Amino acid sequence: MRQDLDLKTISAGAGLNAIKSSTGEKVFTVFNYCVFILIGITTLVPFINLLAKSLSSEDAVVSGRVGLFPVGIQFDTYKYVLQDSLFLTSLKTSVLLTVIGTGLSLIMTTITAYPLSKIRLRGRKWLLLMFVFTMLFSGGLIPTYLLMHNLNLVNTFAVLFLPAMVNVFNMLIIKNYFEGLPDSLEESGKLDGAGNIRILIHIMLPLSLPVLATIALFFAVAFWNDYFTAMIYITDPELKPLQLYLKELIVSSSGDFLKNNVDLAINMTPQSIQASSILLATIPILLVYPFLQKYFVKGVLVGSVKG
Amino acid sequence: MRKRKSMVVALLGLSLAVSGCGGGASKTESPGASSEGTKGGDGKKEIRMIMQYGLFDPAKEYISQYINEKTGYNVKYEMLPAENGNEKLNLLMANKESFDVMKLSSEQFYNLATSGALEPIDDLLAAHGNYINQAIKPESWGSATIDGKKYAIPETGTGATVGEELVVRQDWLDELGLSIPTTTDELYNMLKTIKEKKNIIPLTGSKDSIYGDIATTFGVLTDWKEVDGKLMHKAELPEMKETLAFMNKLYKEGLLDTEMPINTAQKAIEKFTTGKAAVYKLAWWNAGSTISALNKNFPDAKVTVIPYLRGKDGKAVTGVDTKTNWFIAIPKSSKNKEEAMKFLNAKLEPETFKGLAIGKEGVHHEVKDGKYYPILPKFNDDLGNASAFITGVDEEKYPIYWQARVRKDPVLQNYFETFQKNAEGIIVIDPMSVAPPIDAISKNTLKLRTLLDDNVLKFISGSEPLENYDTFLQQWRAEGGADMVKAANEWYKTKK
Amino acid sequence: MKPGSKKLPVPGPNRRGYFPSLWSDIWKEWDLYLLLVPGVLFILLFKYTPMYGITIAFKDFNIFAGFADSPWVGWKHFEKLFTSPDFARVFQNTVIISLLKIIILFPLPIIVALMLNEMKNMIIKRSVQTVIYLPHFLSWVIVSGLFIDLLSTNGGLVNKLLVSLNLEPVAFFLDNSVFRSVLVTSAGWKETGWSTIVYLAAFSMVDPTLYEVAKIDGAGRWKQLWHITLPGIAPIIILMFILRLGNILEAGTEQILVMYNPVVYNVSDVIGTYVYRQGLGNQDYSFTTAVGLFEAVISFTLVIVGNALSKKYLQRGIW
After folding, report:
1. What is the pLDDT of residues C75-109, one digit of tens each?
2. Do residues B236 and B215 make contact, with C-beta atoms less than 8 angstroms apart?
3. How many Cβ atoms from other residues are within 10 Å of residue B2's Cβ?
4. 8 A C-beta contact, residue B309 and residue B29
5. What is the ipTM of this complex?
6. pTM to 2 decimals?
7. Would an 8 Å CB–CB cutoff place A63 in contact with chain C?
8. How would you class B372 by CB atoms within 10 Å of its CB: exposed for 0-12, middle for 13-18, buried for 19 or more?
9. Which end of chain B has fewer CB atoms at under 10 Å, N or C?
10. Burial class (CB in 10 A: 0-12, 13-18, 19+), A247
11. Cβ-contact B437, B491 below 8 angstroms
12. Which among B22, B27, B454 is the nearest to C50, CB-wise?
C-alpha cells in the first residue's frame, strides 16, 4: 500500500531527470564494482593467509614470514589433521548436528512464526512479549544445567540442538516476512476451503523460500559455530563438535593457558597445524551459502497475487 | 473438534506443570549419575575421575589402559574443558554428581575444600595409603591441610625449576663489540647501543610475562617475600616501584618494545626470530621452535643465555614458586571413598608409578649415564599425555623421571639445562609455597594478580605516571589486598 | 488457565464479555493455536523453567547450598555495582561504544545490501556476496591478530603508509584517542557482510512490477531505490533496529576482551569485561546475575519503548 503511494510521487516528477541520471548511473556502477572488489579482497586475504600458513613450514610460521604464499611448502599438516581421530569424530558430530538441528529448528521456528504473524490472533501481543522476554532475560547457567540434567540430556546429542530449536530472533524475521505477504493470498485459500495449516504449507511456504533459506543459513551457521553448549553439557569426546575441538586446540596453545602447565607447553600444537585445522573446520559451512543463494531470487511474489 | 480443543488445553496445562516443577528440581537428588554402581562391565570396580584438560580422548590413551591393568580398576574419565573449567566443575558440583577422584587446580581445590565439598582423607590414608605416604614428603602435605585435616593429595611437579631467562643475539653483540651484561646498568647500556647501532627493538617481551630477570635484580622475585620476619606481597614492595621506574625508562627510550602491552608470546617470538628484536625472555619450552625458526632465517645467528644479572648488593638471585600444581581429592559425594583411596594408592606403587611417568625401559625410555632418555616416537605416542593421568607423584623420583620429557629435543634439553645451571644455588623459594588454603588469599589471588599486572603494564608504558603507584596500591589493598596480606601473616606466625 | 467457558462459545462477532469471546476466537482458529503449541511449550520448558535462577541476584548464592538455602540479601549486589568506583566509567564506555557501533555499523549492511542489489553482473554479485561474509567465520582471536599486524607500529601496513605520507605513526592499540575506532572498524569488517544477508533476502519481497512501472514513468535508479526498494525492506530494518536497541549494553564483550589491554582500559572497559575481571578466581554468581538483570531490564525497556514509538510513527512493530 505504501509502495503504491510512493510510486505515485515518483511518477509525478520523474521523467525530467531520466536522461541526466544515466551518466551518473554509469559512474555509480563503476564505483560500485570497484568498492566491492576492494572489500572482497580484504575479506579474502585472511583466508588466503591461513591457507598459506597451513601449507608452510613451522619455522616460517613461527617467525611470521608467511603472507599470501606458502614458505617452505609441505602437506604434512593436512595429513596429520585428517588422520587425527579427535578431528574426524568431531567433524562427524558437527555435520550431523548441523543437518538435523537446522531441519528441525527451521520447522519449529516457522510454525511458531506463522500464527504470530496474524494480527487477528487473540493474545498475539502477550504471546510475542513472552517470546521477546526470553531474548533478554535468562535464568542463568546453573538452573539451565540442572534442568538439562533432570531431563537426562547431559552428554547426549539432543542437548546440542533441542534447547536452541525455537530461536526468537529467527522467528521474528520469519514472522516479519509472513506479515509482508498479501492478505489476498490467505483469503483465496480460505475460499477454496483450506484450513490455516494447509494455507501455510501450500500457499505461504512456497512463497517464503528466500526467508526460509536465510533462516536455514542462520541456523546452520549457529549450530556449526556453537561450542559453548557442548563445552557445558558434553564431556564425551565422541559427542564434541568441531568448533569445541578447535577452541580447545587454540586455547590449549595460548600463552595464558600454558603458563601454568609445563607439560602441555611441551606438547603444544604447532601453528601450521592450527591453521589447517581452522581452515578445514570452516570450509564445510562456507559451502552452504552459495548453495542457498539460488533461493534469494527476486520477485517470488509476481503473479501469485490474485486480482 | 471438542477433543482437539481439550488437547490444546491439556498441552498448555502440561507445559505449565512442567515449568512449575522445575522450580523445585534443584532440590531433588539426582539418581541417574550414581546408579551405575561400583562394578563395571567386566567385574572390575569402577572409579569416576575428573581430570584437567588435555587434547586427547582419555579412554583411548595407552596410559589409561595401563592404569586399568595395573590397579585393577575400571576408570571412567571426565575432562574439564580448556576454557571455563572452573565453571564446568561448579556445575558438576551443583548437580551433586558422584565422582570418586578429582584432579584439581589450586584454585578449584581451595574453592571446593572451603565449601565443604571434599572428604578429609586422614583416616583413609592411614588405612589404605601406604605408598602415598611414602611418596609424598611431610612438608608437602601443608598445602592440602586445612585445620589439621588433609583434604587432598598434593601433586608437586618438576621441583624447583626456572622457566624463563633472557636470551640475546650473540652474533650482534660480537658485531658491536659488546659483552654479556651482568648488571642492569650494563644491560641498559647494551640495549642503548643496540638501539643506536642497529635501529631495531633492543628488548621485546610479552604481556603474559612481565617480571623475571630484570625484576629479580631489584628484589622482586615471586608473589611473596619475607621482610623482617613478615610476609609482604610484591605489590607492596618498594623494590616494585624501582623495577617499574627502570622498565619505564627502557620503554620511554624505546629500548623496550613499545608494543609489549599487546604482544603475545607468539608475537614476541616472531619479532625475535625475524631479527626485529635482539633480546627476549625465552621460556625453555618455546626454545625448540624459536631457535629452529631463527636459524632458518639467519643461519649465522647465535644465541646466548644471559646469566642472572647481579643486583645492587652484587648478588644474583631468582625466585621460584614451588606451590603444589595439582590436588587430588575425594569428594564427599563419592560412593566409593575407600576404593578411591585404594586406587590412588595403587597408582603410587613404585613400579607402577615409574611406568606411568616414563613407561617401560627399552620400549619407552632408555638410560644413558644415569639419565632417562625417551625413545621416540613411541614415548610421545604412548606417554605424551601421561601427565594428565598422574594423581600424586613420588616426590623424590618424579623430578628425575620427568626430565625425560625435556630430552625429546636436544635444543629444548640444552636450554632447560642451561637455565637450571644458571639458577643453581641462587633460587629463593616463595615463602607461601607450602601454605595451606587460606580463604582471603584463594578468593583474591587471581583477581588481584590481574589488577596488579594490568597496572604494572600501565606504569611501564607510562600511560599512568609512577607517582600514582600509591593510589593504585590503595585500590589494590581495598579490593582484598589488605585482607590477603593479613591472612598470610597470620599463617606465617603460626608456622614459626 | 481460567476455565471461563462452560457454555459452548457463541460463534459470530457478537461479544458477550471477554472470556466467552476469547474462547470463540480461539475456537475459530484452533489450528493456528495448534501450530503455536510446540514453540510455546519449548520456551516454557527451556527458557521459563530456569527463570527462578534470577532470584540469586537478590541472594548470596552458594553453589553447594543451592538455590533454596542461599540467604536473601536484597539489593546488596546492585549496590555493589552502582557504588563501585569504576561503574560510571564502565557504564559510560559501554554506552559510547555501543552507540558508535549502532550509528556507524547499523546502516552499513543496509547500504551494502542496496549497493549489491544494484549490481547487474550476477557472477560478480554472487562472488562478492559469498566473499564478504567470510570474516564472520573467523574468531575474534584471529581477527584481533590480523588488526594488530595491520596496525602495528613495527612494520604494520597502515603505519608504513602514514610514514610514507610524512605523518606520525599511530600506536592504534595503545592510544586512548583511537582505540574505539579500532573496535568499531574491526567489528564492521567482521560482521557487515554477514548482516547484509537478512536484507538481501528481504529484497525478494519487493514486487518487480513496481520497478517496471517506475521505469516507464522515467524514474532513475536512485529514485527507484529510494521509493521502492527502501520502503520494501523497511519492515525488516525496523525489526532489526528495535532488536539492536535491546543489545545496547552489550558493547561486544567477546571482542573487547580479546582486543583491549590495560593501557586503553579507560576508553574500552565495558560492563561485560569489568564483570569478567571481577569474577576471576571467585565465581560470584549472584553479582553476575545482578548485572545481567540490570542489563536485561534496561534492554527490555528500550525494546518496549522502541516498539511503541515505531508503532506510533511508522505503523509497524514487533507486536
Report:
1. 999 999 999 888 999 999 999 999 999 999 999 99
2. no
3. 8
4. no
5. 0.89
6. 0.88
7. no
8. buried
9. C
10. buried
11. no
12. B22
